[in-house]
Amino acid sequence: MPKKLTLVEYQSLANRSAGAGGDGEKRLIVSALGLAGEAGEFANLVKKMTAHGHPFDKKALEDELGDVLWYLAEAATSAGLSLGEIANHNVQKLINRYPDGFSKENSINRAE
């Protein structure tokens, strides 16, 4: 089995294939549109499995989530952010919001 990548390693490797998006603001816009499009393709697969009776297709879901991850890495890179730092920040935010794990009560009554 190949070595599992860290988010930082993935972001660096994904950046190798990022030539077409341009730089700066254009790269951010292209990554945002790509992220939305790929998330829509993932959602469409789930819709077909749920509403249309299509069989569960783990490989197709993995492919679409991989495309979402690539555009997420592009968005982070174009904004000068690290996927590792984003992940750490998000987990800390969730720990602060739900210190004992998720609860419906905390979700409804959380202070933002």
Short summary:
By secondary structure, this protein is mostly helical. It contains five helices and no strands. The protein starts with 6 loop residues before the first helix and ends with a helix.
Describe this structure in words.
The protein has 112 residues and is mainly α. The chain has a domain at 7-80: Orthogonal Bundle (Helix Hairpins). It has helices at 7-15, 24-51, 58-78, 83-97, 104-108. Helix 1 (7-15) packs across helix 3 (58-78) and helix 2 runs antiparallel to helix 3 (58-78). The mean pLDDT is 92.
Name some characteristics of this structure.
single chain; 112 residues; mainly alpha; Helix Hairpins; 70% helix
The rounded distance between the terminal residues' Cα atoms is 43 Å
CATH topology of one domain: Helix Hairpins
* H/E series: HHHHH
Note the total helix count: 5
C-alpha geometry: globular
CATH class of one domain: Mainly Alpha
Question: What's the structural blueprint in terms of helices and strands?
Answer:
Blueprint: H1 7-15, H2 24-51, H3 58-78, H4 83-97, H5 104-108
